[in-house]
Amino acid sequence: MACVNDFRLRFGRRELVPIVIGGMGVDISATALALEGARLGGIGHISDAMVHTVSDRRYDTRFVSQKAKLYKHNAASSDKSKVLFDLGRLAEATHNHVGRTMEAKRGEGLIFINCMEKLTMNAPRETLRVRLRSALDAGIDGITLSAGLHLGSFALLEDHPRFRDAKLGIIVSSLRALQLFLRKNARLRRLPDYVIVEGPLAGGHLGFGMDWAQFDLRSIVAEVEQYLKAEALDIPLIPAGGIFTGGDAVSYLEAGAAAVQVATRFTVTRECGLPDPVKQEYFSATEEDIEVNMISPTGYPMRMLKGSPAIGAGNRPNCEAYGYLLDGNGNCAYITAYNREVLAHPGAKKISVRDKTCLCTAMRNFECWTCGHYTYRLKDTTRRLADGSFELLDAEHVFRDYQFSTGQNIALPAQAEAKVSVG
Ligand SMILES: Cc1cc2nc3c(=O)[nH]c(=O)nc-3n(C[C@H](O)[C@H](O)[C@H](O)COP(=O)(O)O)c2cc1C
């Protein structure tokens, strides 16, 4: 029976294990996880979501507190239009995050960065330009464009010296989105190096409406594949969303996919950036504990655990410190929802906002437990410890399970005794 290791992802003459660990912001697909993906010969992703916070947390910088201080006078105002990011600091923070990650890279694989267009940062074009270019300056192997159509993103890089040598790819959830992207960029004569087709079972934001359940990954992949063939476009196609076992991955690779992108299985690894108690929430989740809702101010549906502290929290908008989702005019759907609740409950010490969440604060504090549809199967991928908790996994173990297990088999971690005798 075939396993993932029988296949290779080819970029020119370079051959990789066809496993891509997907980007998970904010700092969930952390540097340590991405480094393992690359060390093992596949592709790992870091994310540039809230990169100032990530740099502060990991590299002892003070970007967030400095911005908060600069705009402190505005904290009580609902007009956030003047709360802007300093582009020099954005470049510096990106450089820190990417540069230090790349310095630590070992092995034959690659490290890409996930860049979400929906992180509009109160100046969408200017900030995206800095994010993309600084990542290339700092030596990232590739950029995965996500959460948006990215119709103008290649043009922001056109005159960058690495525009044609770095790997640049895009995540789409429909053929139509890919067609728009290709049409818009035709004049640049630079095709994406890979296309990730993300289906409705993925974690994070979904590229579908609340009718997501009516779509399925296999049909979208087949449709995109047919189109690429008909247009004689030789672009590696990478399905994502709900690929839970080596056997699932093989079924896509046998049907012509160049690689698979996976994420949920890695959320419970030691290298994943989520705090350990949150990883236990992921392990113990049942199917009923998972929902797709509209509380993200981006307007995209998002899948998460119903127990996420972000749901119903009434945090005061903290755009002075964060402000990643402000559109170009200083608006965010959470601010509107928050102000409505404040008006409706005059004098209340604490309010609850149920229809939207302050995603910056929630993601920063790991309180929005976004997850893939099959999170409820994670408990079947490990062992239960004597205290009732679940044993965290090594990223290498999960990677190798995808790479070598056949059919629907899932390798469990070695027994504690066996580990001792081997070690
Ligand atoms: C916790 C979590 C956070 C995610 N965050 C992002 C993100 O910031 N940007 C993005 O493009 N995709 C994000 N995703 C989607 C993954 O990169 C990936 O494409 C998808 O989850 C793969 O499906 P799987 O989780 O079923 O393996 C996230 C997924 C998870 C589970």
Overview in brief:
With 423 residues, the protein is an alpha/beta fold. It has helices spanning 31-39, 51-59, 63-70, 87-103, 124-137, 175-185, 217-230, 246-254, 276-284, 333-344, 359-364, 395-404, 416-422; strands at 9-11, 14-16, 19-21, 43-47, 110-116, 142-146, 167-172, 194-198, 204-205, 237-240, 260-262, 290-293, 302-305. Strands 4-5-6-7-8-10 form a 6-stranded parallel β-sheet. A 3-stranded antiparallel β-sheet has the order 9-13-12, with no helix packed on it. The protein has a two-stranded antiparallel ribbon with strand order 1-2.
Notes on the structure:
- With 423 residues, the protein is an alpha/beta fold.
- The chain has a single domain (4-411), classed as TIM Barrel (Alpha-Beta Barrel).
- Helix content is 32%, strand content 13%.
- It has 13 helices and 13 strands.
- The protein has helices at 31-39, 51-59, 63-70, 87-103, 124-137, 175-185, 217-230, 246-254, 276-284, 333-344, 359-364, 395-404, 416-422, and strands spanning 9-11, 14-16, 19-21, 43-47, 110-116, 142-146, 167-172, 194-198, 204-205, 237-240, 260-262, 290-293, 302-305.
- A six-stranded parallel sheet has the order 4-5-6-7-8-10. It has a three-stranded antiparallel sheet with strand order 9-13-12, with no helix packed on it. The protein has a two-stranded antiparallel sheet with strand order 1-2.
- Helix 2 (51-59) packs across helix 4 and helix 4 (87-103) packs parallel to helix 5 (124-137).
- It is globular, with a radius of gyration of 21 Å.
- The model has no long low-confidence stretch (mean pLDDT 96).
- Flavin mononucleotide binds at residues 22-25, 28, 47, 49, 114, 116, 146-147, 171, 198, 201-204, 240-243, 261-264, 267, 370-372, 374.
